[in-house]
Amino acid sequence: MSLQNNPQPSSGLLLNVEDKPGIGLTLILAAQHLLAALGGIIAVPLVVGNVLNLSATDTIILVNASLLISGVVTFIQSRGLGPVGIRLPSVMGTSFTFVAAALAIGFSDAGVAGILGSSLVASLVMIVGAYLMPYIRKYFPPVVTGCVVMSIGLSLISVAVDWFAGGQKTDANYAAPSTLLMATFVLVVVIILVQWGKGIFSAAAIFFAMLIGYIVAVCFGMVDFSSVKTAQVFAVPTPFHFGLSFPIAGIIGMSIAYLVTIVESNGNFLAIGQATNTKVTGEQVKRGVLCDGLGSALAACFSTLPFSSFAQNIGIISITRVASRYVVMWTGILLFLAGLFPVFGALIVSIPSPVLGGAGVMMFAMIIVGGIQMLDRVTRSRRNGLIIAISLGSCLAVTLRPELFNFLPAWSKEIFSSGITTGSLFAIILDRILPADKEVNEDAAEVVAEINK
Fold it and tell me: Is the pTM of this model over 0.90?
């Protein structure tokens, strides 16, 4: 099926959720989701492995298992399996929300076995919580939903900026002119392909922009192939490689992290609905969160960390206007293969940060645009303005200054370390406690009275 012969004027999408493009086109479209997600998927096991001083062999096991299980859970989330899976284009991967709890457990006597055992038991929080999602949805009216979606985009922009500048602020070459030039070049290519590209070049703008950027980076010697040379060609993750143990403190810490993830996943699913022009129901969110919980339990059994939906891939849908869930099902298959063939993942990881950053700035900014569009349909009132201001302000405060919680109890860091969670919680709380829009009626009455004069 060619894109040229399948216009979608009513939805504004090139491919709707149920559209099935041809296999060649599908693989290209799936590859751009893979490129956007792969770095985030392997980042969490790499961080945990390095901080806990695991051996190279054990760290590779964490990484391979993350890729393989990400593929399985992404496929089920997008395709659906009975009562499991939201059946929308949602890429799944390891979540940074669990890193603090994982490291705290890892540094105790429980070690990695304690991390995985705590994750397995605490996943019940998400599994049980999934069945409450149809009731929880009432806490997400349009003003809250818009704030949640905007919080997702705002909290990710700093990640894209670091990619754009070439790494972390502590790096010697951070924001070097050559790095900024490469990232800007990729960003310009994305804009050109999205705005003036036709057919596949517009639908797969992220893929082609990153491919062009990668080729240019190779020509200028900016690509490090050392990880490719040392990577295994084939490897199968081993279930229960580290064993399991069940420390009470670890289970409590992981349970808090799962509660936070429920809020974040709900926001991501609402954002996917916005990007795909789909009204997401409470039943769909229940199936999506249930897939998160069961996928995280499976991850613990296969020796890796818990999962949640990835926000960065929502930006790809917004930019390319390709909402087909079958494309993301193939992304899951590619991730599964990457878990079996580590050399494939190593090749993707060799993509320089500025190449990712040029595309990432656009992807994450489009999520913010989606939130703005949702808030544009919200009644303009002092009450709603207050909710939006405090929600987005608190999200940015936590995102820009995470050291705000340096002197607070550890449990507070678990809850408020994420800008997405902080912004969402403030929006939900304020929406419940602030009086209804009485002032709107009063303002309208004043206007009518003024006209009558």
Answer: no
